[in-house]
Amino acid sequence: MTEKKGLVLEGGALRGLFTAGVIDVMMENGIEFDGLIGVSAGAAFGCNYKSRQPGRVIRYNKRYAHDWRYCSVKSLLKTGDLFGAEFAYHMLPDELDKFDVATFDRHPMEFYAVCTDVLTGEPVYKRLMHHGYAMNEWIRASASMPLASKVVAVEGHQLLDGGIADSIPLRFFEQQGYDKNVVVLTQPKGYVKKPNPLMPLLRLQLHRYPKFLKAAAERHIMYNEETEYVARQEKEGKAFVIRPHSILPIKHITHDPELMQKVYEDGRSVMLSRLTELKSFLSES
């Protein structure tokens, strides 16, 4: 029986440009996966793997780095979303830097986005095989950070950032039958997440969603347990893990195209240095 090969992409807002560099090198070298699951930026950038568009992520992030409609405090004040919902998730892929819908729909790779249901505090794993308005809304929900976004209503769910409930969904993918997984992290080995210092603000903004607040308050516990699990699977040869060598020199948000390019190049460099090793891992039966 052929092993199913999965790609698991952590989020991290613009730290995800490291991931973009990694997956572009994979695409350029013809590396194929049966499925991809992305959280937050991992979903927003990872969808370009199924549409086969290397270079697109870094291109549009640099091009619109100073456009208030893409990402700005002005957008947050005017629309309630730091990353403009209509501009970033609809106008941009539909008109300004076109997403290759035909290729995405035709490619057999399974694509999942992870969101957090604000009513239950539980993860929602949405399989997205065909592009459309609803798919972009699921991806937007996955990447909608608390305090920087409004709750996203889509297909009967009320959703926010998938990283709150499941930051690194390796276990979920294993449960779906993906037994040979590549995991791309945006924090270096040994990174330990601390409790969220913004919880008082979260409680003010999201007081109607106590289960979501509980998940947010405990996120660091979940996250650190998941990184330990990933490390164990890596040690046992069940997962191939790609990480930055050190803390990336980028915050969640930046408007500096040169810094964006540097983080992207870091991802490319790390992946190029491990390409032979990755091909060997994927070819082992």
TrEMBL record:
<protein>
    <submittedName>
        <fullName>Patatin family protein</fullName>
    </submittedName>
</protein>
<feature type="domain" description="PNPLA">
    <location>
        <begin position="7"/>
        <end position="174"/>
    </location>
</feature>
<keyword id="KW-0442">Lipid degradation</keyword>
<dbReference type="GO" id="GO:0016042">
    <property type="term" value="P:lipid catabolic process"/>
</dbReference>
<keyword id="KW-0378">Hydrolase</keyword>
<feature type="active site" description="Proton acceptor">
    <location>
        <position position="161"/>
    </location>
</feature>
<dbReference type="InterPro" id="IPR037483">
    <property type="entry name" value="YjjU-like"/>
</dbReference>
<dbReference type="GO" id="GO:0016787">
    <property type="term" value="F:hydrolase activity"/>
</dbReference>
<dbReference type="InterPro" id="IPR050301">
    <property type="entry name" value="NTE"/>
</dbReference>
<feature type="active site" description="Nucleophile">
    <location>
        <position position="40"/>
    </location>
</feature>
<dbReference type="InterPro" id="IPR016035">
    <property type="entry name" value="Acyl_Trfase/lysoPLipase"/>
</dbReference>
<feature type="short sequence motif" description="DGA/G">
    <location>
        <begin position="161"/>
        <end position="163"/>
    </location>
</feature>
<dbReference type="Pfam" id="PF19890">
    <property type="entry name" value="DUF6363"/>
</dbReference>
<dbReference type="Pfam" id="PF01734">
    <property type="entry name" value="Patatin"/>
</dbReference>
<feature type="short sequence motif" description="GXSXG">
    <location>
        <begin position="38"/>
        <end position="42"/>
    </location>
</feature>
<dbReference type="InterPro" id="IPR002641">
    <property type="entry name" value="PNPLA_dom"/>
</dbReference>
<keyword id="KW-0443">Lipid metabolism</keyword>
<dbReference type="InterPro" id="IPR045943">
    <property type="entry name" value="DUF6363"/>
</dbReference>
